[in-house]
């Protein structure tokens, strides 16, 4: 066969064209080409291998086995996702964290701390109702001394002043000097109520200062999370404390 004949035969050959997509099966997707069956077969066998491996894993699984991802994960739109635990935060903390800056929170906390120290200096940490019962222990050697123990004689004061934990003068002081201060029961009751109110105010300020400290820590933690350094959560966030993260050590130049 001459070269001219081969050239003429090649010119008469019609180019191969893929057949057109029928309009009736457009909803079924594109019509496969001749070589697409290999890709489809490869994908089919790959999925079958995965299913067989999962079936074997399910058969070998211990029915009593439990791990937390069983309850911390779910399937959404066919995708397996892990539920992220929500940070525990009170509405008041959320409002302050959204509207105020950490410098403002810290300024308010320092102001509360100064007011607390001023109140403590005024009250001298006297005992008040609701602040917890105090105890004063006395040590003796025998049971007979326990039965015959006289608190007023041991403290060298009069029985009327035994219940006091402050301003409790001795008998010698009472004989040498006159009793100072109010002695009227109504006046004493009024002073006790004022002292109780002061302790209630002190307790409120201490709680407010602790709340401000927790809020400032949470704001600072959220700012630290903006760093792109790899980190791992060690302890989740609670209403009384921020979340704790362990950051990967990275040397700075």
Automatic annotation (TrEMBL):
GO annotation, biological process: rRNA processing
Residue ranges with Basic residues bias: 7-17
UniProt cross-references to InterPro entries, sorted A to Z: SSU_processome_Utp11
GO CC annotation terms, alphabetical: small-subunit processome
Pfam families, A to Z: Utp11
Highest taxon, organism lineage: Eukaryota
Transmembrane segments: none
Location of region: Disordered: 1-25
Keywords carried by this UniProt record: Nucleus, rRNA processing
Broad class of the protein's primary localization: nucleus
Localization annotation: Nucleus, Nucleolus
Family: Belongs to the UTP11 family.
PANTHER family: U3 SMALL NUCLEOLAR RNA-ASSOCIATED PROTEIN 11, U3 SMALL NUCLEOLAR RNA-ASSOCIATED PROTEIN 11-RELATED
Protein name: Probable U3 small nucleolar RNA-associated protein 11
Organism, as annotated: Urocynchramus pylzowi
Lineage of the species this protein comes from: Eukaryota, Metazoa, Chordata, Craniata, Vertebrata
Encoding gene, per UniProt annotation: Utp11
